[in-house]
Design a protein that fits this description.
16 helices, Spore germination protein (Amino acid permease), mainly alpha, Spore_GerAB, Amino acid/polyamine transporter I, germination, membrane, transport
């Protein structure tokens, strides 16, 4: 199974925890609360928790698909099931999806920097700087990307401890009464919260790079549990910090909460938080982009991976420099949300059913 990947390019099983968790923690965590409250109101933390637990089922489906593919990834599975031509087309569509999420994450982070910190610096300057950094990381190979993912989990986890500072300002009564909303309201909130958990689908591409794959699933499940815990805690903290009426009108609730934190030696703590968040978004951008390039490379072997990387970053730079109006941000947000939902909750279960039927037919 792992014969296609050289030993010196693989990483230990426990790195799956950092690879999966880092891709799930991106820019969405800074703004999701205002979206999910539109459905179940102050009960919206319940669908956030339920969705996180549901991801374990999706992950088990992914593992089953990978187990029944010749090379241990979705790219080979596509070709085996749908043939070389149609399977190759699906791989290119998958690469387009990965590229789009990577672009959306970079675009949104640049937007945050301009709104909160550097309103006088042009988008193309940020884009050029980040493109050089992304090129260096992705061109370095999967082990370099994994190292970035490691620090993208460790350092921001320490930063999230700063939320404990806010405990003296919370009002528990904002969460009451419980369970006053209907199933439809919970569904609306769940739909808005779903993008929080996107990211771990990249495991379908990079799984062959994990050593001793039979030992790695537990680390994947731990990553999902950790993400679920963080998102549920942030949601509950936010709902106790803001009234429902005020939260509906905030674009970046997490940053607005962080803004209240002050130290004698540091007045604008949110600046430090935003700069540190670069370590959070960089693994998302790089893992998705690396997955897109691998999908293209294995589908069209003659193409050089470095050229694909340079080409995609050139597209990223154009979009981040020219398409900076707010309607483009909303459009990308909509495409990102819906395509992620279709991929996680429709396409993966479909592939799972196909692999179950295929196994029974073989028997």
């Amino acid at each position: 199974m792992n014969a296609m990947v050289k030993e010196n390019k693989m990483v230990s099983p426990y790195f799956l925890f950092f690879l999966m968790n880092s891709t799930q923690t991106g820019v969405v965590v800074l703004s999701f609360q205002a979206n999910i409250i539109g459905g179940a109101g102050h009960d919206a933390w319940i669908p956030v928790l339920a969705l996180g637990l549901m991801m374990h089922v999706i992950f088990l489906m992914m593992l089953y698909i990978l187990k029944h593919s010749s090379a241990g990834d979705i790219l080979s599975f596509h070709k085996e099931i749908f043939g070389k031509v149609f399977g190759g087309m699906l791989n290119i569509i998958l690469a387009s999806y990965f590229s789009m999420v990577s672009l959306f994450t970079l675009h949104t982070y640049i937007d945050i920097l301009q709104i909160w910190v550097f309103d006088g610096i042009a988008s193309w300057e940020f884009s050029l700087l980040f493109s050089v950094l992304i090129f260096y990381i992705v061109a370095g190979g999967f082990r370099i990307v994994t190292a970035v993912a490691y620090w993208g989990v460790v350092i921001p986890s320490l930063m999230l401890l700063s939320l404990l500072y806010l405990l003296e300002f919370v009002e528990v009564s904002y969460l009451l009464p419980f369970f006053q909303f209907g199933a439809k309201d919970f569904f609306i909130s769940a739909k808005e919260a779903a993008p929080l958990y996107l990211g771990f689908e990249t495991v379908l591409v990079f799984f062959p790079f994990i050593k001793d794959r039979e030992k790695s699933p537990k680390w994947g499940h731990l990553a999902l549990l950790y993400s679920t815990f963080i998102y549920t805690m942030i949601t509950i903290m936010t709902f106790m910090f803001f009234t429902q009426g005020k939260l509906e009108h905030l674009t970046w609730p997490t940053l607005t909460m962080i803004k209240i934190i002050q130290f004698p030696f540091l007045e604008r703590f949110e600046f430090i938080f935003i700069f540190t968040w670069l370590l959070v978004v960089m693994p998302v951008i790089c893992i998705y982009l690396w997955s897109a390039i691998r999908s293209i490379k294995l589908t069209i072997p003659n193409v050089k991976a470095t050229y694909v990387l340079a080409g995609l970053l050139a597209v990223f730079h154009f979009v981040n420099s020219e398409l900076i109006e707010i309607q483009y941000s909303h459009l990308m947000d909509q495409i990102f949300g819906y395509s992620g939902l279709i991929f996680l909750f429709c396409y993966i279960p479909l592939l799972f059913l196909i692999s179950v039927v295929r196994k029974k037919l073989k028997k």
